[in-house]
Each structure stands twice: as C-alpha cells, then as structure tokens.
Amino acid sequence: MKTKILSVLALLLLLTGCKEQKENTVVNNYLDFSKRDDQFTGGIKMIPINTPIGKFKVWTKTVGNNPTIKVLLLHGGPGLTHECFESFDGFFPKESIEYIYYDQLGSYYSDQPNDNRLWTNERFVEEVEQVRIALGCDSTNFYVLGQSWGGILAMEYALKYQKNLKGLIISNMMASAPAYNKYAEDVLGPKLPKVVFDQIKTFERNKDYTNPKYSELLFKYYYTEHILRMPVDQWPESINRAFKHLNPNVYVYMQGPSEFGITGNASLRNWDVTTRLKTITVPTLVIGAKYDTMDPEHMKWMSKEVQNGRFLFCPNGSHLSQYDDQKNYFKGVIQFLRDVDSGEFKKG
Hints:
- The protein has one domain (40-348): Alpha/Beta hydrolase fold, catalytic domain (Rossmann fold, 3-Layer(aba) Sandwich).
- It contains eleven helices and eight strands.
- The chain has helices at residues 2-29, 121-135, 149-161, 177-191, 194-205, 212-226, 237-244, 248-254, 296-305, 321-324, 326-342, and strands spanning 44-51, 54-63, 70-74, 98-103, 142-147, 167-171, 284-289, 309-314.
- The chain has an eight-stranded mixed sheet, with helices on both faces.
- Helix 2 packs across helix 3 (149-161) and helix 5 packs across helix 6.
- The radius of gyration is 21 Å and the shape is globular.
- One of its GO terms (molecular function) is peptidase activity.
C-alpha cells in the first residue's frame, strides 16, 4: 500500500514538473521572433485572400508565441478595425497568450474593394478560414474571439468550421438581429428621456442620419450609456482612431446607418442563428454586460444553448466591455483560455 502511495505521489510530482516546465518554456519564448517568418515585419503579415471577384490582401499582426493558445480577434462594425482591441496589450502578454490582430477585408489596414457582393457572412467566414490556414493554426491551439459584428462572424465560423477550433468567445453579441432590434426599441429606447427618444426616431424616419444633431443626441444620451461608459472626451485614443477609420460603405450595407439597431435595408437585418446554437460543441464563452446595447439575459441563454458554454457577466460594462469593465472582462476571458488549455474547462 505504501509503495502504491509513493508511486502516485511520484507521478503527481512528475506531472506537476512537466506542467511547470511547459509554462516556463512558453514564458521564456513568448517574445522570441527569431524562429518566425514575420520577424522582419514585427509580426505583421498581409495575407492573400481568394474571393469570388478576385484576390485581395488582409492585414494581420501576431503578438507573442504560444503553441497551444492562439486567439484571432474579430473586430466589430462591420468595417471597423482591430484598433478596438488594443486594450488587450495591457493584459494578454503578461499571461503569455498569443493573439492576432486582424483587419477584415474592407477595413482600414486591409484592401478596401468597393463591391457590395463581397459583404456577406458566407464570404467573411471563408476569409477567416483562409487566415487560419495562412497562420498555421488548428484545433490544438486556435481560438476566435468576436466582438459585436465580430461575434456574428465568430458564430457563423463555428457553425461551419468548429472542427478547426479549440475554443470560441462571443463578446457582446446576441444570436438574433430581430431580437437585438426589439431590445433596442422596447427596452433601451424608452430609458432615454422621451423628448430625446422621439427626436432620434424622427431623424431615423426621415433618414436624416447625417444631421449633426442626430449624432450629437446619440453620443450624449446613448453611446456614453451603452457603447462606452465614459465621457466622450475621455474615450481611449484607440477607439477614436477605430471610428475615424470606419469604412462606411461596408458598415451601412450590412448594419445600416444607425447604431440604434440594425436599420433600413441592411443585409444583417434578418440574421438569426438561435435555432442552430445547439450544434456548437466546442468550449464557448459568451460575454454580456449590464449596460450593453445587447440583452445580457439573451447572451446568458446563448451560453446554455451551446453544448459546452460558459457565461461571463460584466456588471460595469457596456458594448465595449474590454474598456469599461476590464477587471471582469479580462479575468473571465483569461480564465476561460486557461481552463480550455489545461483540459479543466467546465461549462456553467
């Protein structure tokens, strides 16, 4: 009996030692670019993409080295940029998490063809798959983290290519555009001062989206409550830069001219994958926030609908929780990545 106990203890010590050795190797090599083909550019790659109308290039930048955790960041918009994720620089390197900034086709740092045939969910999914292959990621290390529109893209990618994923993170995005519109109209809108809400709806009925007063009302009463909960003059420079670099052609075609729901003839207005979530089997983290433009209760439901889901609630956050509730956001995301990587992930 004593011999068996000693054998078990020896095995545990051996496993612990191997784990610590692996972790030390990752930490020591995290910033070593010497064996990579993108050392010359500091991690930047312009990746060729095949589309139905020809070849283009998209911009990526890899930060760090970790053979078992590689997180591709899918930005929002559509038509925004990777700059919305620059706060990750303050958290992921300390944890030796490899992450990849990526501007989707049509976004500022990538090629920007002017052809609406390109702006479909299906084509963007194939673009992500081509990026994955070019970066050499696979199911042993590949995660996607999609925020807002990027969350739509992450869900659509998982629904087709989850065999290539190690984990999925859906940040601040519901699984249904009609449900999102209903939440904006029935819940968030009435919380505004009535005179303000009436003015906003009048501008939208008249399609007067370029009126400075319309933008002023949204920023003052809506954006600082539900997009990023800080006074506008305190918004991070990276967010201001991302909005400055927005491609309005892609944004309006897919999302519509307003941030107050998916409006007009936007191509995403009827998007809904609620009945398909149950087919997602990979470990999935769904992130919702108390003040988000998206209903956090819907996101909590999503985390239970997928087969291996976990819900992360940001009590101080809004749509850009990676900025206005960093304490909860990054703690939850990092814990999810660690749990999946170690094989200790539990849904809940």
